[in-house]
Amino acid sequence: MLKRWSDLTGGIAFLGLGGLFWAQTIEQSVSAGTVANNPVWFPRLLLIIIAIGSLGLIAKAVLAKTSCDGRAALPAKPGQLALGVLLVGLYLLHFTPVGFLPTSAAMIIIFCLMTGYRSVVTVIVFTLIFVPGIWYLFVDGFSIRPPGIGMDNILSYIGGFANE
């Protein structure tokens, strides 16, 4: 008999939502030869990570020998987890039309505040360092420009420091 129902239901819910969000990226696909230039490959990577975690929860539920006494396996409230999944879905849906920098900055700020980081200065400094750092990693490291306004646009507006 199954002992960890909360892990099983959570894993199935996350897997189902991940599949639903994945379906939203299908019509934006490009041919296999240009996958690296596909603007939805990063959201899909996040969805694959969510799917792997979901399968891990399902496996944990099936293979567990002890009961969890009805408690969730993750140290968070169910409402907070549902809000987190909803925010990830909104991030994935708005990633291409709005752009990487604004959606990533908003997501990091919301998740930091949602998970208990109340120092506004720390959250803003972290966001101002992390998001442009990831943008530059993709542009300079992987030669893939994320969608939307970029650091090159921002720097050219500020003072003409763009990398042409």
Automatic annotation (TrEMBL):
Entry annotated with the keyword S-adenosyl-L-methionine: no
TM helices/strands, residue ranges: 42-63, 83-111, 117-138
Xref: InterPro entries: DUF1468 (IPR009936)
Residue span, DUF1468 domain: 10-145
Domain of life: Bacteria
Keywords: Membrane, Transmembrane, Transmembrane helix
Keyword Transmembrane: yes
Protein name, UniProt field: Tripartite tricarboxylate transporter TctB family protein
Organism whose genome encodes this protein: Roseinatronobacter alkalisoli
